[in-house]
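TL;DR need structure tokens for one chain.
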Amino acid sequence: MESLIVTLIVGAIAGWLAARVLKRTGFGLIGDIIVGVIGGYIGTWLWDVLHLPPIGGPVIVSAIITSTVGAIVLLVLLRLLRS
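>> reply
TL;DR here they are.
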């Protein structure tokens, strides 16, 4: 149960940060969580494919950074598909 709560919190933070980086309004709490959680999977996959070094520091910070990068990629791809 704790891992689900941590995943939701990391997803919410990552989705919110991704929206701020791209200077967009967020999708609300639920939307930000969904974007952040999907971004977590994308970010982890990208880190493996690109052979990037692990992020130092606490695990939660690493998860937020990786999820945010993935969420940014997701939002950029969604923006390109809409255009």
